[in-house]
Amino acid sequence: MNPFSLGSFPATRLRRLRVDDFTRKLVTETNLSPQNLIQPLFVMEGEKQTEDIPAMPGLCRYTIDTLLEEVAELQDLHIPAIALFPVIQPHLKSDFAKEAYNDQGLLQRCIHQVKTTFPHMGVIADVALDPYTSHGHDGVLNSKGEVDNDSSVAILLKQALSLAKAGADIVAPSDMMDGRIQMIRKGLENEGYTMVRILAYAAKYASSYYGPFRGAVGSASQLKGASKASYQMNPANSHEAMREVAFDIQEGADFIMIKPGMPYLDIVYRVKQQFKVPTFVYQVSGEYSMHMAAIQAGHLEEQAAIMESLLCIRRAGADAILSYFAKKAAGWLKAGDLP
Fold first, then answer.
1. Is residue 324 within 8 Å of residue 288, measured between CB atoms?
2. 98 is a catalytic site residue
3. Which end of the chain is more exposed for a tag (fewer CB within 10 A), N or C?
């Protein structure tokens, strides 16, 4: 008897849904568009300059004027928002991060210029002390050399208010101090910034994938190899991430962030399924650098690998992705030359 005769073989052949291009398009479950992408940008002091970032090929630091030129290109690609990260000059760094809440500081001036020139571009401002501290930690240290949670939160509140005053649409606390979302939300409300949104880095892991970023903003030399494990999350834990997210939502976060991206897609999925809130994912510097190393060595095909990585993050549940590939991906999507 023919084992494939009618009645002895399954009537359903899932390959029928993959047989040609139009059918595959009709049954596609996950889509990626420029509206899902946020471009992180590094800004430094100076005029008419860019500086290459050796560990992140193809990326650079911008002075405010050259950054505005980059933002113009991103807007033309329909990328809805940028995330700004400052490179603070060494002489402005201090034990208590005073420069973080200087209303005339680099990040504050940059935000003002971007919003003045491009009022419809969303601006996400990083709320964190590590670019500003002499020791490279995301908080201030007590007399024992430990990161002091409550003293750090008081400074983060000052920083968030300063960034809101400069015109930031979204403030993004990335420090992982306990209680900072509640304090920042109350502070914004009390000062009349009721429409400034909070993007909480709710599940930010003490990851090995942050190295190139720390080099890009100049905090690696201050940190001197010290660990951030006392405040960033243990990579072994997932239930704890659910608690972190729940607290941040309760305290007033408008969006939540999971960081890093691809190694933590199980966390993205769990968060989206459980909380069903706007969920952002940061495809971090180490992920970018690994992709670029493999691409430049000829081991990966550039467009296919990058687009697959972003699509996988979307599939796991991300509404938006902070990615150093955002501009490249938006360009490919605009050109419509995807396979």
1. yes
2. no
3. N
